[in-house]
Amino acid sequence: MTVESRSPASRVLAPGRVHYGWAMAGVTLLVLVMSAGFRSTAGVLIVPLEHEFGWSAATVSSAVSINLIMFGLGAPFAAALHERFGVRRVTVTALVVVAAASAATTLISAPWELRALWGFVIGTATGAVSIPLAAIVSNRWFVRRRGLVTGIMTSANATGQLIFLPVLATIVTAAGWRWASATVAVVALLVVVPLAALIMRDHPADLGLPPYGGEHVEGRRPPVAGPVRTALGGLREGTRSGTFWLLTASFFVCGASTNGLVGTHLIPAAHDHGVSEVTAASYLAAIGVFDIVGTTFSGWLTDRYDPRLLLFWYYGLRGLSLLALHSVLGSPSLGLLAFIVFYGLDWVATVPPTVALTADAFGRERVGVLFGWIFAAHQFGAAFAAYGAGAIRTDAGSYHWAFLISGAMCMGASFAVTRIRTRTPRPATV
Question: d(Cα 335, Cα 324) in Å, to the nearest integer?
Answer without folding.
Answer: 9
